[in-house]
Design brief:
By secondary structure, the protein is of the alpha/beta class. 47% of the residues lie in helices and 11% in strands. The structure holds 5,6-dihydroxy-NADP and zinc ion.
Length: 389
Amino acid sequence: MQEFIYYAPTKVYFGKGKQREVGEIIKGYGYKKIMLQYGKGSIKKSGLYDEIMASLTASGIEVVEMGGVEPNPKITFVREAVKLAKEEKVEMILAVGGGSVIDSCKYTAAGAASDCNPWDFPTRKSTVTEALPVGCVLTLAAAGSEMSSSAVITNLELNMKRGFNSDFNRCKFAICNPELTYTVDKYQTACGVVDIMAHTMERYFTVCDPTDLTDRIAESLLKSVVDAGKVLMENPCDYEARATVMWASSLSHNDLTGCGRENALAVHQLEHALSGEFDHIAHGAGLAVLFPAWGRYVYRYNIPRFAQFARRVWEVTEADDEKAAVLGIERMAEYFASLGMPVRLRDFGIEGDCMDKLADLCTFGKQRSVKSYVDMDYDVIKAIFESCY
Ligand code: NZQ
Ligand code: ZN
């Protein structure tokens, strides 16, 4: 096990009805004026907006509203939000939504506490040294942003999706009521299941010393999520399955499943190039195509690891390591397909002549390679994209 620092400062309020405590929770921190961000309307349709506003009003919290965050949130929206947050001198930012809303709030929080262009954070031209606090009411179990140190944003002018990590990106609190996810449709639910699994598998497939405990935490999480995902395809209002997936969302990306291991999210780098270029692609759906394609390419560089994954997560009984490794990847691909996820890039309706562009975006114009069991340079990345077209 390698040395590590584990830092998970987010206070989690988990369970039924917890969203109605949001006003009291914020009051407890002493904040009197906040910015509320939400998405394109799901919280109004479900009645959650009214519940949140009632709770905030009852606690005497003044609210500055900024609705309309798009999936794959945009830097243009953040710039407007930063301006408003500064003008109104809000003390904290409350996200009510999924990963897109939370990430938009993280960028707003960092931007509002500095004079930097928020796009300079993911492009490493500026470092975050201060940020307003962010809290969230989670409505979709997927990105893990509620406990992660990451924030991902899209710049449509450049067709680029970029993220950065910072402890300033950690939410102060996360309110997680699994019932709030009952209204998430099958497709987004499946995207969430894939993303949660991907956050765990990315950390599982890194170079490291033996990490038996971390391995087994990751494998258990994966097995639970696989089972819960199957249940949710049949019954979207199964509380226990929603609860399993919601808690797994947080644990899969708060670094728990990576303690003692290298931390590189290789397939995410490929996916961010994909959904950065094609804004209509949901992050989890992109991962559902790319993860098996990446696995088929890299498994030969660490056959024992892929064989362990196959046997422990997918209950493959094949004795030969290489055959087992391949079977594990195929079981994963079949599972994603069984959730209704796309299987090939062409399923997204994109043309096959974009592979150079995607490889270029992913390598920042051939300026970098992506670390995995083998260094993935421009040619390798292009080959992986082509293999799943
Ligand atoms: O906009 P609304 O109307 O709210 O609808 C959303 C959106 O259309 C809908 N939705 C959310 N909660 C719902 C609901 N619909 C019905 N009932 C509910 N309770 O779902 C759609 C997708 O929402 P979005 O927030 O975009 O999904 P997700 O949580 O998967 O977030 C994806 C974003 O997070 C980034 C992705 O790249 C992508 O931009 N990621 C962020 C990470 C992080 N910060 O740690 C890590 C991830 O790897 C990921 O990259
Ligand atoms: Zn992800």
